[in-house]
Please model this.
Amino acid sequence: MELISVSILVFISILTLLYAYFKYSFGYWKSKNVPYDEPSIPFGNIKNLGKTIHLTQFAKNAYDKYKPTGAKICGLYVFARPMALILDLDLVKSILIKDFSNFYEKGFYYNEEDDPLSAHLFSLDGTKWKTLRAKLSPTFTSGKMKFMFQTVVEVGERFRDCLFDVVEQNDELEIKDLLARFSTDVIGTCAFGIECNSLKDPNAEFRRYGRIAFGEPRNSFLKSALVGGFQKLAKKLKVKVIRDDVSEFFMNVVRETVEFREKNNVNRNDFMDILIKLKNQETTDKDKVITLNEVAAQAFVFYLAGFETSSSTLTFCLYELAINTEIQNKTRKAVQEAFERHNGKCTYEMMMDMPYVDQVLQETLRKYPSIGNLNRKVVHHDYRIPGTQTVLEKGTPILIPAYAIQRDAEYYPNPEKFDPERFNSEAAKERNPMCWLPFGDGPRNCIGLRFGMMQARIGLLTLLNNFEFSLSSKTPNPLQFEAKQFILAPVGGVYLKLKPIKM
Ligand code: HEM
Model:
């Protein structure tokens, strides 16, 4: 009996302490005179995140509510942890570029020991991130892109042939999955040197594990947020981010590919080649080499970041072109004129000479940035926001709401309208560059920007040259975003009608 009473007492004490802890923590933004939404125990402001609402829409709601007040930031609570959401473009620029040295970390959780694939460039922080970024940057120069160009074109041609076959059976297609199969084959070839064949076989292993890695993550959004707040404890408890089956598959693929290439002296000028060279380079500076696990983690992130972002960009692009048929026709004409200027050949130079196609892709990425928010953290010292008395304390996580900024009527009048003319050279010059952030900005921007754009351009020119796209009764209207996915993805995919163009 006494034991039960003591247990109840302990339980009540813990609850009281927890309550006091939350109440105390929830006073943070008020004490700084920063506007915020009233949080609730235990989730703070994120109760429905990842369940009924996507992070981009959540950030947009806060942005739309507090930006008109003139505040430069508003406050959020992720459980009890305060996070700052940025509302002002000058401050965005300071964080991403001017004062980058105090904001270069993201504060994501990773676990090199127990979950080696999680220690990739996207998540790493500290000197690890700095040295790895420096080592990997030469991987993505335009010279390297030229080497890979032909490979991507060849996958594009296989994609076209596959589509012709599919359309013969059924002209109403779910294009998101088809495009993911195209970009899986591109990145599989360039990052792993493997012909994944997911175009022919929808269940090919690469595609299957890619689908699982994104669609069925190991941890829910809430668990990830919780782990993010208690990283040291999570590491001690050996918490992992990546599912075991996904991890095992990719580790094996990388191990086998590296062994094969080393044994047979294979050189393919692809990402894997560059990673193997970094692993094997002869130097006394240990910081300059990378281990096999690090090779695997980078190949893994190139794969994930490469296929889902590019395929969702193309999906949204075709969706808009099916709605806006005049723009579709104009884009197709721009592709055909570029071919004519370059003697009918699809060369690297021809691909870079399609300004209107680029405008269409830029407008797509404005309306639908695959990664709708950028994360940063105050790294070294407290930071007083220029022109205010507000201080961002060391360690504070920061969210830059790219999606919300890109749909702000102050910067893009009539923001729901799809209008590539927003990106003609004059209009683009007039605009603050911080209004367009689909690849982030500053020294920690997207390292794969050139590759992502190359893949999207080749995909789009191949498709527009061979097919007309129109809406079908199954096309979603309006589009809704899958709440639990990290990347912006349409619920249920996107169905369109395809009609082959006879040349
Ligand atoms: C349309 C295609 C793509 C989009 C929209 C996109 C978007 C982004 C964004 C928004 C970031 C965060 C930038 C920041 O925080 O400032 C990022 C980072 C990154 N992206 Fe991409 N990406 C694309 C394609 C690719 C491709 C093809 C690769 C690799 C082959 C790639 C690899 C990465 C990596 C490794 C990072 C982390 C960089 C770092 O933290 O140093 N991305 N991407």
